[in-house]
Amino acid sequence: MHRKYILCIVFFTFLLPSTFAKTYSPFYPDAGSWNTFSCSYALNKKFAFLFTEELRFKENYSRLNLFYTNLGVEYKFNSHFKTSLVYRWVDKYMEYDQFSFRHRLMWDATVKQDYKKFTFSYRHRLQTEIRNVQTSDAGAIPEWYSRNKFEISYDISKKISPYYSTEFRYQLHDPRNVESDGTWHRIRYQAGVDYKLTKSSKAGIYYLIQHEYNVMAAENLYITGLEYSLNLKRN
User: Could you tell me the domains of the chain?
Assistant: First the structure.
C-alpha cells in the first residue's frame, strides 16, 4: 500500500477536522442513543440486498427522535471498491404527538485498502430527501447533500476490531435552509469497536459526536450507539 494513501486518510480523519473548529456557531448540546439492526443477503460474490432498521432517542435519552427503514442493493466490483443504492423511509417524531414522514435516496461509493492489520476506507454518499409532501409547500422540493466519510479500523484479533471515523457533510441545496447552501455545515467523529459473534453476525458499540456550524440554532450531539448485523448468503 502506498504511503501517500495512508497519509491522505490520516489527514482527513484526524487533522482536517481541526480546520473547522473556529467556524462553529453557538450550539445547543444534546445526548441520545441510536440502535441499529442491519442485514445483508448476498446472491453471489458481487450482488447483495440490504436491509436496516434504526431507532433513535434524543433529549438525554428521554424522548423518541425517529426510526427509519432502509432497503437497498449493493454491487462489489472487487475487494477494494463497491457501490450501493438505498431508499430510506423515515418517521421523525415531532411535537404534539405528530410524525414527519420523509423519503430519502442514497447513492454510496466506497473504496478501501488493507494494510497488515489496518483497513483504510473512504465513502462518498450523494443524498437527496423530500419530506411532508402533502402538508408542506416545500415538501416536494428535494434536499441535496454530499457526505464524505473516512475510516480507519484495526484488527486486534479475528473477533475484535476497533475503529475511528470522521464524516463531513456539504449542503448542495436545502429549500428550508438556503442560507447554508454551498457550505460544509456538519462534522461527525465516531469511535467504536465491533465484535464478531459468528461467521455471519457481529455486534458493535460506538460513541459519536456531531458538530453543526454555518446553520441557525446549531446543535452538538453526543450519541451512544448499539449495532447488530447479519451477513447472509444464498445457498
Answer: 3-233 (2.40.160.40)
> What pLDDT is stored for residue 42 in this prediction?
97
> pLDDT digits over 92-112, tens only?
998 777 888 999 999 999 999
The answer, yes or no, to whether residue 24 has pLDDT greater than 50, is no
- 143: which 3 cell numbers? 434536499
Predicted structure pTM score: 0.88
Q: Is 196 exposed, middle or buried (0-12, 13-18, 19+ CB in 10 A)?
A: middle
Would you say 40 and 70 are in contact if contact means Cβ atoms under 8 Å apart?
no
Residues 162 and 156: beta-carbon distance below 8 Å? yes
